[in-house]
Predict the structure of Histone deacetylase domain-containing protein.
Amino acid sequence: MEIYRPHKAYPVELAQFHSADYVEFLHRITPDKQHFSRMNWQDIILEKIALYLITCLNSVKLCRWNNRCCTVMTVSFHNLGICFFQERVMLRRKEGKFYAINVPLKNGIDDTSFTRLFKTIISKVIETYQPGAIVLQCGADSLAGDRLGCFNLSIDGHAECVRFVKKFNIPLLVTGDLPNEIPENEYIKYFSPEFSLRIPNGHIENLNSKSYLSTIKMQVLENLRCIQHAPSVQLQEVPPDFYIPDFDEDEQNPDERVHQHTQDKDIQRDDEYYDGDNDNGPNMDDAQN
């Protein structure tokens, strides 16, 4: 049997399994560092992420990120209602102050009004925050005809928002994709006559006046001025480390006790009479003399 004792992993070894930035961060971080105290170690995120939500009834737990650090910014376009959201445009809590943007919209907003507001706000967010990755969630409850939502958006409106975000060439994860074909179910009649998810805009009154949308836009843009431009975890150059050299048996003093590392490397031979060098008892030594 061979015994392998683990040794301390050095950055050059960890870099074989993790990114260089992550290894450097682990190598430099200490509990007394300021940026460590404002980050949740269990939910550590080194890359700045922007999460954009297009939904009517949003129930994502944003406080898990934004109340603790500024490495995640959320932008939520949602329906303004007593049961779901209060009339406010931004959460302001703890270290996540100004990094959770809420855009409350009234019933019946259409593609034209929504995409115009979406492009203006998202452009400013990307310019100010400069995220390293984007997660875009397009909620189906914001589509026209949805029995839970109150918006009047179409698939084309959602697609225009996705195309706009893609133009920034930032790594993008889009969630909420569904096939256009609807399988047979007890509610299939509600999708007649085409029986597909591509539903046109309905005849719903748009309660979002130009003055209201302008006020919301100005409030969001004003709050964006309060955040630090492009916050990030500062990583500094770390001098390279080297592997611990293996023991050179030829350089060891034979009069000194054998090191544990050397004993571990000694493989027991099956044809030896004794199990080990220490198995010779005092009686056997006397008999030999």
The beta strands are 49-54, 72-79, 90-91, 100-105, 133-138, 172-175. Residues 47 and 156 are 31 Å apart (CA to CA). The first helix runs from residue 11 to 14.
